[in-house]
Design the sequence.
């Protein structure tokens, strides 16, 4: 594995007065730096024995953990809370715990905590709505659309008028469970420009898949509600039995997914579509399953059909007989996604490893990068490392994420840093600050800036022309 030398060389210990640290953490959060605020809380929060201030710190910690999407850590913290904790703190802890269980797809536990929250505390109307909507979400994630539908009807009865955004949420949740008839309950309450309305019209047969496809594509060009419209394109393509078009839409949908929960459905559908289309290509070329060399040759022969090659590499990653062949296909599959500007899709796919078995270890990701970077252009290599940094980010491995992002920055042309380089610097800073290494983040950014300025000065120096003796 490449050494994370910039951290070890630049590391500086941080010391602060504990009495002022809480206010500093609060100010950092309010200033839009939740990672840095959380690092300070982790470092300076007093022991639980000092209950007069511990709950203030812990309340802020819960807020920051939710802001930074650290559901697993919230569930760990929940085990520390005694039953005689202050009532207002217990109410907050139950709410955060319910959200964290939902994020981890532990829906029964989430509903149990939400029930306690609703029945044991006098919630204000907004908190009531929030808790009831989470219960509906928990039923949908548990694939219990009938229970979700009844909860939706009760919600509508108790909180009138129903906002269009909530109606769209209900419709999309029910459509995901193929409860089309139930979803039509809110047809009249949807915004005419809502992707939920277009999806419901298509699935209920009010408009043809071809028409829905055209409308969704037009909306995608404006990048509005990208994941919702990509889902409609994927659904229309499925109805039209067009695997290629469905794969394209699912890749785009997965590419813009922001959370593990958002990525779950398109990832499942995409992997099944990959397998179907690969088998079609294999049958067309009369390639037998198990003939690894023939499958690799078929992928290489597709030339300009990069999507087709990517589909085959995905197939070989799962069905290749020889470990070395699977590794080669896996590397090419990763590179194909990144080169097609589907970095987001690559992140979710290579974190989960839908081809079966254990997800890739840190060492395996590092080996994959080294395998691909040999002889590859620097612009491509830095994108591979940048994407690996994003994988480590969602795994909460901030130190390794910072290392990958830093390497992608140093592979950039810092004479004129482009968007990838600037994003890389931002991600290095974010991950180092999460660890409490603010000085290291500052030093890294100064080094990048200094190198960029030095490059500009070198370029700006004009060569001195040599004197030429004029002919007489």
Sequence:
């Amino acid at each position: 594995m490449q050494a994370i030398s910039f951290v070890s060389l630049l590391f500086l210990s941080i010391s602060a007065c504990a009495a002022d640290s809480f206010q500093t953490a609060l100010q950092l959060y309010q200033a839009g730096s939740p990672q840095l605020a959380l690092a300070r809380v982790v470092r300076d929060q007093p022991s639980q024995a000092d209950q007069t201030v511990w709950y203030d710190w812990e309340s802020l910690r819960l807020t920051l953990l939710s802001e930074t999407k650290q559901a697993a850590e919230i569930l760990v913290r929940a085990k520390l809370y005694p039953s005689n904790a202050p009532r207002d703190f217990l109410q907050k802890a139950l709410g955060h715990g319910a959200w964290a269980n939902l994020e981890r797809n532990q829906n029964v536990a989430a509903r149990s905590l939400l029930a306690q929250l609703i029945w044991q505390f006098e919630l204000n109307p907004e908190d009531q709505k929030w808790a009831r909507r989470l219960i509906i979400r928990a039923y949908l994630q548990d694939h219990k659309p009938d229970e979700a539908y009844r909860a939706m009807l009760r919600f509508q009865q108790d909180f009138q008028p129903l906002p269009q955004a909530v109606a769209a949420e209900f419709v999309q949740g029910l459509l995901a469970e193929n409860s089309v008839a139930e979803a039509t309950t809110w047809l009249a309450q949807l915004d005419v420009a809502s992707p939920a309305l277009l999806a419901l019209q298509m699935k209920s047969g009010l408009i043809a898949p071809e028409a829905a496809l055209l409308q969704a594509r037009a909306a995608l060009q404006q990048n509005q509600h990208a994941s919702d419209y990509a889902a409609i394109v994927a659904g229309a393509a499925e109805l039209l039995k067009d695997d290629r078009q469905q794969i394209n839409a699912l890749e785009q949908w997965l590419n813009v997914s922001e959370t593990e929960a958002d990525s779950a459905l398109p990832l499942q559908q995409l992997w099944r579509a990959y397998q179907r289309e690969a088998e079609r290509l294999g049958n067309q070329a009369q390639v037998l399953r198990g003939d690894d060399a023939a499958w690799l040759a078929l992928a290489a022969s597709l030339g300009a059909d990069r999507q087709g090659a990517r589909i085959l590499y995905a197939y070989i990653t799962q069905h290749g007989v020889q470990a070395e062949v699977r590794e080669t296909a896996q590397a090419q599959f990763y590179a194909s996604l990144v080169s097609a500007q589907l970095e987001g899709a690559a992140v979710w796919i290579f974190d989960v490893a839908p081809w079966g078995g254990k997800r890739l270890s840190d060492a395996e990701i590092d080996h994959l990068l080294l395998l691909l970077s040999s002889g590859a252009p620097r612009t491509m290599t830095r994108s591979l490392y940048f994407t690996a940094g994003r994988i480590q980010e969602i795994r909460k491995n901030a130190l390794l994420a910072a290392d990958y992002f830093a390497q992608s920055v140093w592979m950039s042309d810092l004479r004129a840093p482009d968007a990838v380089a600037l994003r890389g610097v931002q991600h290095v800073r974010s991950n180092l600050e999460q660890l409490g290494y603010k000085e290291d983040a500052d030093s890294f950014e100064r080094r990048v800036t200094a190198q960029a300025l030095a490059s500009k000065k070198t370029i700006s120096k004009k060569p001195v022309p040599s004197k030429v003796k004029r002919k007489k």
About this structure: The CA atoms of residues 26 and 32 lie 10 Å apart. Residues 360-456 form a domain with the Serine Threonine Protein Phosphatase 5, Tetratricopeptide repeat fold (CATH 1.25.40). The chain is about 70% helix and 0% strand.
